[in-house]
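Why do we care about 3D structure at all? Because function follows from shape, and shape follows, mostly, from sequence. That is the central idea of this module. The next example makes it concrete: a single protein chain, its amino acid sequence, and then its structure expressed as tokens.
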Amino acid sequence: MVQYDDMVQALKELRQRGYSMDFSLLPDCLYCASRSLKLKPEDFTVTETHRFESLDSSPDNNAVVYAISSNDGRNKGVLVDAYGTYAGVMTHEMAKKLNAHKF
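And the structure:
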């Protein structure tokens, strides 16, 4: 797997590789506002994860970039999620799906 120096580089190169959608994390699914698309845990695969820590070791500034592909192959995008104090609230199914690839 490719190692990126920073999150900006990771997002740029993932977009160049076709991960063009921006997903946000809802409690029970991933949501892409530009396409009004919701993907439940059973509808997507995490193809890559990239972890980034802040230089000052502050957990508030840590993040994970997930490369996401829908199981039907028609949708690819990224999810940027915090993994410190402000990590999102989600259902058990979403947590299981994402945490399996988090680190």
